[in-house]
């Protein structure tokens, strides 16, 4: 029975991605890709399309609840969240479902959604390292790993079956046989390193909006690569007519003005690779973002640097053009003519707005390098 | 998938227990599904086959994701059909399955016996599949997108039915109404009582005759008015009067049909879940439970009954209210004498040994929906014992805060949230507004404003069906307004 759901889900996915029925997108509640970002938890809203109906405005309505507290006590919940229960299906869920996931899971979701291939690390030192994962339960173990709930249940069961559980004084005391402990399995994973070098144009023509796009794209790239490599180092370069290395915060918030010389960034990138990242040990990922507004003769310098000194060492070189209204730039056209062998070392794409990020990531990371 | 032998045996056992207690149910067919299939079936509200729509896909994705993140799992599902179909989650323990089966028999008994379900189609499984076939055929002929877009329009309007009607009104009823109207014709002339001419002025006073004539002519005037009375079943009105192509009319009818089918389930959520929980707990604790299963049962039951501060759990509320009724009718806590007794001590120890509890429960399950159930049986004692309160939104702190523990306030709010399923009441007021064939809808304002942006979007959907300018009268922040959409732009007018 029931194979039809596949049709309906793929139709829904198409709607969410804006491929069909564009007019429905206005009812979509997904907000930004990145929600609140706690320590290493991210909440991602699952997109929902809600058809409009004649309904009450919620806030005026209030409702009835159950529990302790005096008049004026805040009710610690959000009635706008959909209810949960054993039965589903009859009542429509009303609002965004947000789930908190760890970055690791997030990367997995990203991989699944975009059908990203896993990366084959290039590093020659494929040393395996041991990773412990807590997945099981067993009867012996150190006290620090005791599983409280399981232990309690076992103890409760035993006391009830022995008949010495007292309802008026429900104390449960576990004995040794009751105790349950978390146990782990050791996995071997290849030890591999990656270096990401972000280069961004901060000349006058890069508005804040464009930088926001870069920030979001970089977040997803980081998340994905971190899930693929044991150790990831990230370096940031900004440039206008001259380039310099900066920290993350400066990278996203600097506003310079003046001219553009992309080659300056490439030169710095080359120097960083030379100094710190031996290509035999590191998987190197230079990512470049710009609006492509570069001097004609500098374009040729860039290509030379790229072909001779960067591409040979990199796993992948990606260029994201945060495009302005003028469409594809001269710089991008020249870049696309670069012969990168058949390895697909070089990817470039234009990112028009936030919605374009999705496709850009697929272009960048879809090659599995 | 046929039921594995151990579950077959379990079913026979639980069914026998249910019969022993006098539950009256349709044949029930259990199927075991893994969580993936369970989510699929749940997305289709329990039906294996429905019309194609992305909304089901969306629900499926949402459910699979929330299952994957451990937010929520579906233990059971049962559909109102004869025979009834119920689904069990494959990964459940045997004791869970037993509990679920007992719970399911409670639901099926309720479907069969509760009068609010009397008008529902008991062959809905077939009906839904037919709907699917019809919609698919239209999609082939008129294009997927065209049909889907129209479905979306209908789904935007699918809460505009008359839920106070016991069951769906069909076309034929409408003709009947017309015939009745024809027969009423004799009343068009004022009937005079026979009298001698000199007595005529006394037997048939002219004032009275005048008043009667005026009434009749007013009634005539009303008849020309479409609809004669404001119409609550907006979908029905559109179905009968909107300029739709045949396939569109059919799609609208399908959506309306399904909306009426699901209406009683929303109307009886608390009572239905309470009833099923009452029976799973009774059957399990009195008859079916084995000692070694106790803890697992207790954990599952407690999970189902869990309350969070802000949300009323329908399972818990329904079960506790039913138990309260059973206790009161067992002790004879009802009737004039009880109502008039205001001695707290006497009330507490009241026991007339009436022993009518169980009998009363069966009566409750037969005739009440949630509104009636709570209106009749929610008592001040109960509200206090279960710590009920009302909450309000505080715009200053942007939080919901506890507002009141006054019984009257709680009850009023609770009943209001259930009346009309907590949906606004929208009526067709006039189909010839301004004598231009424009449609006027009126929102019967009961103190809460509409979600305005949605209302305006929905109004555009109404236009898509009516194809002439449409208007909506409602109250926004205590001011009466009329919103209009003429096909190209929205306008707003204060009245």
Textual characterization of the structure:
The complex is a heterodimer of chains A (369) and B (495). Chain A folds into three domains: 1-52 and 96-101, no CATH class; 128-188, no CATH class; 192-365, von Willebrand factor, type A domain (Rossmann fold, 3-Layer(aba) Sandwich), CATH 3.40.50. Chain A is 32% helix and 22% strand. Chain A is built from ten helices and eleven strands. Chain A has helices spanning 5-16, 58-61, 103-114, 148-162, 208-228, 248-253, 262-276, 296-310, 330-337, 356-365; strands at residues 41-46, 63-66, 97-102, 127-138, 181-191, 193-201, 231-239, 243-246, 282-290, 317-322, 346-351. Chain A starts with a helix and ends with a helix. Chain B has 495 residues and is of the alpha+beta class. Among the domains of chain B are: 5-114 and 268-299, no CATH class; 306-417, no CATH class; 424-494, no CATH class. Chain B is built from 21 helices and ten strands. Chain B has helices at 5-20, 35-43, 54-68, 94-113, 124-142, 144-156, 171-183, 200-203, 206-224, 234-241, 246-267, 269-288, 294-305, 314-331, 335-340, 344-348, 357-367, 370-377, 380-385, 407-418, 452-466; strands spanning 28-33, 76-79, 84-89, 388-394, 399-404, 425-433, 438-444, 470-476, 479-485, 490-494. Chains A and B meet through helix 1, helix 2, strand 2, strand 3 and helix 4 of A and helix 2, helix 3, helix 6, helix 11 and helix 13 of B. Strand 2 of chain A pairs antiparallel with strand 4 of chain B.
């Amino acid at each position: 029975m029931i194979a039809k759901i596949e049709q309906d889900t793929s139709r829904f996915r198409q709607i969410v991605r804006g491929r069909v029925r564009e007019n429905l997108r206005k009812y979509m509640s997904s907000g930004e890709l990145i929600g609140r970002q706690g320590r290493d938890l991210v909440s991602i809203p699952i997109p929902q399309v809600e058809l409009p109906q004649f309904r009450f405005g919620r806030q005026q309505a209030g409702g009835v609840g159950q529990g302790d507290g005096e008049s004026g006590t805040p009710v610690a919940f959000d009635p706008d969240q959909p209810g949960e229960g054993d039965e589903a299906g009859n009542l429509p869920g009303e609002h965004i479902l947000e789930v908190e996931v760890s970055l690791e899971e997030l990367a997995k979701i990203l991989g699944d959604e975009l059908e990203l291939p896993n990366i084959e690390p290039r590093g020659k030192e494929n040393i395996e390292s041991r990773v412990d994962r807590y997945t099981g339960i067993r009867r012996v173990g150190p006290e620090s790993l005791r599983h409280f709930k399981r232990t309690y249940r076992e103890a409760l069961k035993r006391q009830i079956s022995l008949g010495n559980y007292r309802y008026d004084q429900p104390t449960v005391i576990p004995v040794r046989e009751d105790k349950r402990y978390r146990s782990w399995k050791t996995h071997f994973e290849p030890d591999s390193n990656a270096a990401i070098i972000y280069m961004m144009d901060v000349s006058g023509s890069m508005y804040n909006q464009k930088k926001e796009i870069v920030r979001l794209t970089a977040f997803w790239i980081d998340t994905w690569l971190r899930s693929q490599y044991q150790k990831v180092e990230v370096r940031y370069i900004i440039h206008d007519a001259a380039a310099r290395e900066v920290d993350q915060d400066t990278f996203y918030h600097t506003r310079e003005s003046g001219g553009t010389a992309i080659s300056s960034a490439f030169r710095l990138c080359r120097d960083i690779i030379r100094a710190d990242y031996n290509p035999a040990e590191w998987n190197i990922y230079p990512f470049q973002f710009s609006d492509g507004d570069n001097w004609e003769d500098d374009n040729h310098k860039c290509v030379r640097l790229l072909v001779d000194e960067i591409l040979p060492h990199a796993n992948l070189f990606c260029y994201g053009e945060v495009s302005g209204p003028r469409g594809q730039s001269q710089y991008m056209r020249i870049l696309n003519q670069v012969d990168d062998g058949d390895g697909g070392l070089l990817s470039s794409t234009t990112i028009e707005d936030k919605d374009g990020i999705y496709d850009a990531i697929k272009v960048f990371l879809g090659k599995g390098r | 998938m046929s039921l594995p032998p151990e579950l077959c045996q379990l079913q026979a056992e639980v069914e026998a227990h249910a019969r022993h207690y006098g539950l009256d149910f349709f044949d029930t067919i259990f199927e075991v599904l893994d969580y993936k299939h369970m989510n699929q079936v749940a997305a289709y509200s329990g039906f294996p086959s429905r019309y194609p729509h992305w909304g089901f896909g969306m629900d499926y994705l949402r459910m699979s994701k929330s299952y994957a993140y451990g937010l929520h799992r579906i233990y059971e599902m049962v559909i109102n059909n004869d025979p009834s179909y119920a689904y069990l989650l494959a990964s459940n323990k045997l004791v869970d399955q037993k509990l679920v089966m007992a719970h399911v028999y409670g639901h099926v008994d309720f479907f069969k016996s509760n009068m609010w379900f009397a008008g529902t189609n008991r062959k809905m499984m077939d009906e839904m599949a037919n709907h699917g076939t019809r919609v698919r055929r239209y999609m082939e002929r008129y294009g997927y997108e065209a049909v889907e877009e129209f479905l979306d329009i209908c789904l935007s309007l699918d809460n505009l039915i008359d839920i106070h009607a016991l069951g769906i009104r069909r076309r034929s009823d409408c003709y009947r109404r017309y015939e009745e109207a024809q027969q009423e014709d004799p009343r068009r002339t004022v009937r005079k009582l026979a009298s001698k001419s000199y007595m005529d002025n006394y037997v048939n006073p002219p004032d009275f005759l005048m008043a009667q004539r005026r009434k009749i002519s007013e009634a005539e005037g009303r008849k020309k008015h479409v609809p004669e009375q404001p119409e609550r079943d907006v979908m029905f009105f559109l179905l009968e009067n909107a300029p739709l192509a045949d396939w569109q009319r059919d799609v609208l009818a399908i959506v309306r049909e399904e909306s009426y089918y699901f209406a009683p389930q929303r109307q009886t959520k608390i009572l239905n879940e309470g009833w099923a929980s009452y029976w799973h707990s009774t059957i399990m604790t009195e008859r079916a439970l084995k000692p070694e299963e106790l803890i697992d049962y207790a954990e599952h039951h407690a999970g189902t009954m869990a309350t969070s501060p802000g949300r009323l759990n329908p399972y818990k509320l329904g079960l506790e209210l039913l138990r309260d009724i059973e206790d009161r009718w067992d002790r004879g806590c009802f009737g004039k004498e009880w109502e008039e007794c205001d001695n707290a001590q006497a009330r507490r120890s009241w026991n007339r040994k009436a022993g009518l509890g169980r009998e009363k429960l069966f009566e409750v399950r037969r005739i009440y929906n949630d509104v009636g159930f709570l209106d009749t049986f929610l008592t001040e004692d109960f509200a206090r014992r279960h710590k009920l309160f009302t909450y309000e939104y505080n715009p200053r702190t942007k939080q919901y805060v506890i507002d009141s523990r006054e019984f009257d306030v709680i009850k009023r709010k609770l009943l209001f949230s259930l009346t009309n399923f907590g949906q606004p009441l929208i009526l067709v007021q006039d189909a010839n507004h301004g004598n231009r064939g424009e449609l006027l809808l009126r929102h019967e304002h009961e103190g809460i404003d509409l979600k305005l942006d949605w209302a305006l979007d929905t109004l555009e959907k109404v236009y898509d069906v009516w194809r002439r300018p449409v208007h909506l009268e409602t109250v926004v922040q205590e001011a009466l307004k009329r919103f209009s959409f003429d096909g190209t732009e929205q306008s707003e007018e204060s009245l």
